[in-house]
Amino acid sequence: MASKNNIDVRSDHLITSTDPEHPANLICTLCRNFYNLGWVTGTGGGTSIVKNSHIFIAPSGVQKELMQPENIFVMDRRTHAYVRKPTSLKPSACTPLFLAAFEKGAGCCIHTHSQWAVLVTLLVEKAAEQNGKSSANSCFEIEMIEQIKGIPKGKNKPGMLGYFDRLRVPIIENTAHEEDLTQSLEEAMARYPDTYAVLVRRHGVYVWGDDVAKAKTQTESLDYIFRLAVEMRTLGLPWTKEETSQGTKNTQEDITLDQTINGTPISKRGRPKRSSDNLEEADGESPKRRKPGRAKKSLQAEGDNKSNQANQPGSLRSEGQNRVTALNGEKGGATQVTGKKGQGRLKQEIDRDDEALALANMTQVGRRRPGRPRKTL
């Protein structure tokens, strides 16, 4: 039969349905939701659903928020042959990895390019390097997080993980082409038979579940945990009890933060930086602190030094003393000042000298401390 819009019209019944739970409709809905969450951008990521004897797969190269049921590929579950293949579109490069999950009994597989998933793989890689270990065949591990309860214990194991259980998600290395990840994914599944997800370093994550609802909720739970793990590492918080006992090495170094309190920079010791800190650190020296009980030079000592300077020859106090000597006698006391007039003149001169000395003490020596009387001439 002739084709219509490059699609074999004999297979349209496989994707035509008004039921929102039909795989062709569900894939479009999921892709739009994942796009809005930022998990799939451009044309990246993908989703596949198994129903009865068919496998429904989102195409490659179609913007996820614009996907329509007629874009969906349909494959025979037993033979893996396409029974509906839009000729204007390319099959998803994720298809071999979806099939690997379905071989393990999954009913739906979701692939996202979540930023949090990517960051977690980088943090695990960095921790391995700092501990002198290889990041190959590494694993993301976390425990004592409530959302872990959203992940099943494993195939043929009833129930979900508990708060005190440890979640393990294996990490495989990225490749130039998506389909080349298949072998690594299968090996990770064999090493961790209870896992429902595999992280791809610097790429994203594959998550699967027994049905669409479980795959969706597990993907949501994992993305929450990945994001929380990144934030925990930023704050220097451990993912596991082993990290707590050993001490986390990468507290603030993993992700640089702008540490301020109300715009005031915080120093490494946790106190607001002072201007003196900046000046001393700019010279390459650490801030210097006085030891307890060791005070700066007192104001009294400084005042005494300046008082001594005031008594030096040529100072105001010295000149005042010379003038008193001159009034009492010229050239060593040859002439004496006698009578009321002379004594009054002497008193006026002394008062003027006294005022000059007081002014000198205020400007040059500083204010006297309370309780210490002023010296008289």
Automatic annotation (TrEMBL):
Co-factor: note: Binds 1 zinc ion per subunit.
Region (Disordered) residue spans: 241-352
EC numbers on record: 4.2.1.109
Biased composition (Basic residues): 288-297
Record localization: Cytoplasm
Cofactor(s) of this protein: Zn(2+)
Biased composition, class Polar residues, residue ranges: 245-265, 306-325
Alphabetized InterPro entries for the sequence: Aldolase_II/adducin_N, Aldolase_II/adducin_N_sf, MethylthioRu-1-P_deHdtase_MtnB, Salvage_MtnB_euk
Positions with a binding annotation for Zn(2+): 111, 113, 203
Active-site residues, record numbering mapped to chain: 146 (proton donor/acceptor)
GO terms assigned for molecular function: methylthioribulose 1-phosphate dehydratase activity; zinc ion binding
Record key words, sorted: Amino-acid biosynthesis, Cytoplasm, Lyase, Metal-binding, Methionine biosynthesis, Zinc
Pathway assignment: Amino-acid biosynthesis; L-methionine biosynthesis via salvage pathway; L-methionine from S-methyl-5-thio-alpha-D-ribose 1-phosphate: step 2/6
EC class: lyase
Keyword Metal-binding tagged: yes
Domain Class II aldolase/adducin N-terminal, chain residue ranges per copy: 25-230
GO biological process: L-methionine salvage from methylthioadenosine
GO CC entries: cytoplasm
Reactions mediated catalytically: 5-(methylsulfanyl)-D-ribulose 1-phosphate = 5-methylsulfanyl-2,3-dioxopentyl phosphate + H2O
Role summary: Catalyzes the dehydration of methylthioribulose-1-phosphate (MTRu-1-P) into 2,3-diketo-5-methylthiopentyl-1-phosphate (DK-MTP-1-P).
Cited PANTHER family: METHYLTHIORIBULOSE-1-PHOSPHATE DEHYDRATASE
Annotated family: Belongs to the aldolase class II family. MtnB subfamily.
Protein name: Methylthioribulose-1-phosphate dehydratase
Organism, scientific name: Heterodermia speciosa
